[in-house]
Design a protein that fits this description.
This protein has 302 residues and is mainly alpha-helical. The chain has 11 helices and 3 strands; from the N terminus they run H-H-H-H-H-H-H-H-H-H-E-E-E-H. One of its GO terms (cellular component) is plasma membrane.
């Protein structure tokens, strides 16, 4: 019962408060990670072994500290709840995505491009309305997996230290996991560890999206299209999500001045403004489904 209550409390805090507008622990962690990277990867000369050392220095002490506080502190229950709250990004996902959909509905393409630029790393300056809707929908589906469902899974599996380990690892992947001259060797460990931590959660998320949408199409897209995607975890999530929505995602996108020809995801018409909201509803519905299953497990399975 304590796991159920802690999970409900963490999710509720995120739903009410959202991401802190002032200081956030992940911002402080990001500054720490930058300093470690500057020391161990000067001018991009660090090797894989330096990346492993950097990951351990950044992640393990904080994970162990949170685990210790959760176990021995009289307020261990509060540590558990706050760790989950700090790791979740459910409300923040909606706060970023809904203004994109609203701008598209109002016909303000310039604002829509600007807003979706906060969500994705691709060049958004030349996107048409469908391109903006595609980028927004893809971001919601993928970030729903990374910033919401995977955090929930690792909290359910290993409590506060589990969710901290996952969230810090995911942050390092976002900072270091690039295939460019600076990070290709140094960031290898961060990328591979994040892939490993997300492997099972991503497939549970893909199944969740499929169950809440056009199930047969989502499963078919997952099977056929996911292996063509360059990310082993984003592929199943986004292919199943696009199939569940019955829209076409993927395709060409420009990243850092280079045009990437990405495989198609899903089937059907091009994405529209309302598909960003439909993607959000998949995430919201998935969270409610998981909480309901946790409730049933607590009452009848434990």
């Amino acid at each position: 019962m304590s796991l159920l209550l802690s999970t409900l409390a963490g999710v509720s805090l995120d739903a009410v408060l959202g991401e802190s507008k002032g200081w956030h622990p992940l911002v402080a962690f990001g500054r720490l990670a930058e300093r470690i990277e500057q020391r161990l990867n000067p001018a991009g000369r660090g090797w894989r072994s330096h990346g492993v050392t950097a990951w351990c220095l950044a992640v393990l002490p904080l994970t162990l500290l949170v685990g210790l506080l959760a176990q021995v502190s009289a307020f261990g229950w509060a540590v558990e709840i706050l760790a989950l709250y700090a790791a979740l990004g459910l409300k923040s996902l909606g706060e970023h995505a809904l203004p994109v959909a609203q701008a598209l509905r109002l016909g303000d393409l310039a604002l829509a491009r600007e807003r979706v630029g906060y969500m994705v790393s691709r060049n958004t300056a030349a996107l048409d309305a469908s391109g903006v809707a595609r980028a927004g929908s893809e971001s919601v589906l993928e970030n729903g997996s990374d910033a919401v469902f995977a955090a929930l899974i690792w909290f359910l599996v290993a409590g506060a230290p589990g969710v901290v380990l996952y969230r810090l690892s995911n942050t390092l992947d976002a900072m270091w996991g690039y295939r460019n001259p600076r990070f290709e060797r140094f960031g290898w460990a961060a990328a591979k560890i994040d892939d490993g931590l997300n492997y099972i959660p991503a497939r549970l998320v893909a199944l969740t999206y499929a169950l809440l949408g056009r199930t047969a199409l989502a499963l078919r897209c997952w099977q056929r299209q996911a292996p063509q995607w360059d990310s082993p975890n984003a592929g199943p999530v986004m292919a199943a999500g696009a199939g569940a929505l019955g829209v076409s995602l993927g395709g060409a996108a420009e990243y850092h001045g280079e045009l990437h020809q990405r495989p198609q995801l899903g089937e059907g018409r091009p994405a529209q403004a309302r598909d960003i909201e439909r993607a959000l509803n998949l995430v919201y519905g998935g969270v409610l489904l998981w909480l309901a299953l946790l409730l049933l497990w607590t009452l009848f399975g434990a």
